[in-house]
Design a protein that fits this description.
With 411 residues, the chain is mainly alpha-helical. It contains 19 helices and no strands.
Length: 411
């Protein structure tokens, strides 16, 4: 695939506005974590306070994700995304004003994060159901790759910019920039011109749509096996690399070394896209679960030999695996799932991906007390490999194939 073909989806106006809007949104989201954390610590310098604020976002996000998918399939997704961006912009603006005026209290931020997590539960499945609506089949693979590359760039630049703003002018101004990105994203999404899709199978209630979606997911036979693997992978990754990794790094390569090494993952996603554009993923679900096992590489390194450069290379491999996961799953869903069920299927995937992450984050500490940090990290790597190999041999995952790609129409 030539470079111009890699960018070909941007020539479609509706996708171009969607891509710009979501890239701006992604940049703001990448900034928000650091800005919010330091805003909380400026009010109450305690881990408990930060934990309450973070949990206030996670709990509604997880518990309402499945209903969020039903809502996103029930209404025009572009309208849902614009509305979600506007609400998130208002939430972050209120937080900005409270922080900048030194009137913010922890309970204020908890309430705002409850609203934010609820909105994300709707916007996540709506976002993941958009590409098949915006582009013909031949353009979807380069679109997914392009979006992954953009997200990898913002995942590096966003936290870096947020850190600079927090250090120079304070977390309130970093929150202000994040708030602005939501309004800019909503403006870009407002430029899309899409017909309102008829929903003849829509149930009388959102709950009815959710039940119909869950029945459809079960009938497919392959969504729940992959989602179950994702549950284990994300729990292990969030605990070992998200919580234990920084602890090990603090005693070995330091915070600077850890930041450099973690940036290797974003580089891996970006670079892998160029190679993935040139190959065809036929057994996509097998590639998906095996792609997750690439995260075992930095785990093994953290448990055995911690070096900044080597660890960065390990995270680069993990990033390449993540690129395979995202592309193979997206291509499978867009081919095998009808448009009116897309968001509900993606909501099931999102629910299983997120629900066990807090368990992994909490469980890692007592495991370290019993077995030690190095053994827990090596054990996490082994668990990732075992789950990936078992998942890849499951018939529902192993045997599913994508049809040969259709050639794009000539310019």
């Amino acid at each position: 695939m030539r470079f111009r073909d890699h960018l070909s989806p941007v020539r479609v106006a509706n996708f171009r506005w969607f891509f710009l809007g979501e890239t701006v949104n992604s940049a703001g989201t990448a900034m928000a974590g650091i800005a919010l954390a330091f805003a909380v610590l400026a009010i109450d310098d305690s881990v408990a306070a930060l934990g309450w604020v973070m949990a206030a976002w996670t709990v509604p996000m997880v518990t309402l994700m499945l209903l969020g998918g039903a809502i996103a399939d029930r209404l025009p997704r572009a309208l849902v995304l614009r509305g979600c961006n506007l609400v998130q912009g208002v939430v972050q603006t209120v937080a900005t004003v409270l922080v900048l005026t030194d009137t913010a209290e922890i309970w204020h931020l908890v309430v705002l994060q409850l609203v934010s997590g609820t909105v994300f539960a709707v916007s996540y499945p709506a976002f993941h159901g958009m590409v098949p609506v915006l582009l013909p089949e031949a353009e979807r693979k380069p679109a997914y790759l392009l979006m992954g590359q953009a997200e990898s760039v913002t995942s590096i630049g966003g936290p870096a910019l947020s850190g600079v703003l927090v250090a120079t002018v304070g977390p309130g101004w970093a929150l202000a920039v994040d708030a602005a990105t939501y309004f800019v994203a909503a403006a870009f999404l407002g430029l899309m011109r899409l017909p309102v899709a008829d929903r003849p199978d829509r149930r009388p209630s959102v709950l009815g749509d959710f039940i119909a979606g869950w029945s459809f997911v079960r009938s497919l036979g392959w969504v729940l096996p992959v989602a179950s693997c994702s549950l284990v992978f994300n729990a292990v990754i969030s605990g070992s690399l998200g919580v234990l990794g920084p602890v090990i790094a603090e005693d070995t390569i330091g915070g600077d070394g850890w930041g450099f090494a973690r940036a290797g993952q974003a580089v891996g996603v970006f670079v892998a896209a160029f190679f993935l554009a040139r190959i065809t993923l036929r057994r996509s679900l097998r590639a998906c679960v095996l792609g997750f096992t690439c995260s075992a590489v930095p785990m093994l390194l953290l448990g055995t030999w911690v070096s900044t450069i080597v660890l960065a290379a390990g995270f680069l491999v993990a990033g390449a695996g993540l690129a395979v996961v995202n592309l193979s799953w997206s291509l499978t869903v867009q081919e095998k799932v009808p448009e009116d069920m897309l968001s509900r299927v993606m909501a099931v995937d999102g629910f299983f991906s997120f629900v066990a992450m807090p368990i992994g984050q909490v469980a890692v500490a007592p495991l370290v007390l019993v077995f030690g940090a190095s053994d827990v990290m090596v054990g996490s790597a082994v668990l990732c490999l075992v789950v990936g190999l078992i998942g890849a041999t499951r018939p529902a995952i192993r045997d599913l194939q994508l049809h040969p790609p259709q050639a794009a129409a000539p310019d």
